Structure formats: C-alpha cells, structure tokens
Amino acid sequence: MSERLWLVVPAAGRGRRMGAALPKQYLMLTGRPVLTHTLARLHAAFPEARLCLCLDPDDHHFDPAWVPFTDWRRVNGGAERADSVANALDAIALEADAKDLVLVHDVARPCVTVEDLARLYAVIAEDPVGGLLAAPVADTMKRDDGAGRVAATESREGLWQALTPQGFRYGLLRRALAMAPGCGVLVTDEASAVETLGMAPRLVAGRRDNLKITHPDDLALAERVLAAQVASGTTPPAIIGPPVERERDT
Ligand SMILES: Nc1ccn([C@@H]2O[C@H](COP(=O)(O)OP(=O)(O)OP(=O)(O)O)[C@@H](O)[C@H]2O)c(=O)n1
Ligand SMILES: C[C@](O)(CO)[C@H](O)COP(=O)(O)O
User: Fold this and answer.
1) What confidence tens digit (pLDDT) does each residue in 26-44 have?
2) Contact 218 CB / ligand 2 (< 6 Å)
3) pTM above 0.90, yes or no
4) What are the domain boundaries of the chain?
5) Which of 87, 85, 90 is nearest to 103 (CA)?
6) Whose CA is nearest to atom 12 of ligand 2?
7) Architecture, CATH, for domain 5-131+162-199+211-240
8) Other C-beta atoms within 10 Å of 156: how many?
C-alpha cells in the first residue's frame, strides 16, 4: 500500500443503553472483554496499520496489554462519538498525510469479519470519496405517532443500515468533521459528515451479523454470532483467542 492506513476506534462511550456496571466495551464476551475481540479482528486484517484508540480520560478499566498493534496511541474521547473521532484525527495531524486512509470502527462491533474488513478496504482505496459497510434494510419500516401507535408505513426502498468501518482519506474526513457541526446536521457516523460536503460515500454491502452491541440482549446475540462464525469457518478460533484475566476492575 502506498499511503498509510490509520485505524480509529471510538471506545469512549459509557454504554448508557446497556445499563451495566462497566462500559460495554469492557463486558465479557466469550471470556474476553468486547474491546479485545474488536482489536483482534482489526489486527488480523491490518497488522501493519496505526491505531488511535479513543478512550474516556477517566477510564480506569483499560489495560494496554490488550492492544495487539505495535504502533498505537491512546486519545481522549469527546462528548459525542464524532468528537472522539475528531480528537483522534487532531492527534495524528503532524504524522498523517491528507491522502492516508482512515478506517473508523466502533469498539462495540466485535463481530466484524476479516473478510468484510478487507473488502471494504479494497473498495475505498480505489474510490474518490470513500465509503462504509452497510446492509440493505430487510424489514417493513413503521413510523410511530409518539403515542405507541403506527402513524405511517415508510418505504424501505433504497434504505441501508450504516455499519462500520467507515473509511475516508484523512484530509477529507478531518475537513468534513470540522465543517459538519456548522451545517446543523446530526453527525452519527463519518459518512454523514462527508455527505454535508455534498459527496456521496460508497455503500459496500457487509454482513448483517456485524452488529453493534447496544442493549443488554445484544451481548448474548454477539456470543452466538462469534460461535457461528467459528463453526462456519468464517473466523479462525485463533482470532477469538483464549479467555483473558482482567485484573484492574476485579
Ligand atoms: N463520546 C463517545 C460516544 C461513543 N463513542 C463510541 O462510539 C461507538 C458507538 O456508540 P454507541 O453504541 O452509542 O456507544 P455508547 O455511547 O457507549 O452507548 P450509549 O449511547 O448507549 O451510551 C462506541 O464504540 C462508543 O464507545 C465514543 O468513542 N465517544
Ligand atoms: C456509526 C454507527 O455505528 C453507524 O450505525 C452508529 O451510528 C453509532 O452509534 P450511535 O448509537 O448512533 O452513536
């Protein structure tokens, strides 16, 4: 690869919807913290990449021994996900070139496969805008009336669920994240920031089992996904790895 690859992993969320005692990235999934699964998969796909891990400045659950990358740095997270990602881009400003590729992946998506990661990379490395993993919406969409009843059935034609990673050139993404707040748009992913510049990110069909652990039920679902991926040969057991000891918060 001619340009460098940076991985940004926003992991500064509090997991409010999960409602657990620990932020969800530290909850155990097949005997390992969620964060270790996510980093292991990114490392298996991109062992030479440089990693920026966005963590809450007061995070005392994190253990640096969990990071498999040789070139990595800890960056303070911000108030929102987009602020955490912007902080990471600011932190590497002196090292990154505008043309370098940046892949942003939620720590809360530990089931992403190496195959999807490699496919997304191959597409966005050649794309003038960049893009994201996404899945076509499969269900009928209802809009509620605010009182628990259906106000309308919305067309799902052309609708996709945004997943991560989302990948763009460093210069473009930094500019987009800096400009987006002024556009009055809710920026919940990198693509929506790039869209505010009038650009159309590429949709790259990804696996539906790349779920985001958000609610309590999702943890058990993710365990089943990991087991199914191993059973089907999609993910070698070595990537799942053995259980790890967690000393800092026990
Ligand atoms: N200020 C924030 C908020 C979120 N994230 C990260 O962004 C990803 C997606 O966010 P989400 O699923 O909403 O995670 P939480 O913010 O932890 O969850 P909740 O909204 O339920 O509190 C997660 O990897 C989360 O750690 C972050 O780095 N910085
Ligand atoms: C970026 C994202 O994973 C795309 O689906 C998602 O938007 C992040 O989660 P949030 O709940 O919107 O913060």
Assistant:
1) 999 999 999 999 999 999 9
2) no
3) yes
4) 5-131+162-199+211-240
5) 85
6) 188
7) Alpha-Beta Complex (3.90)
8) 13
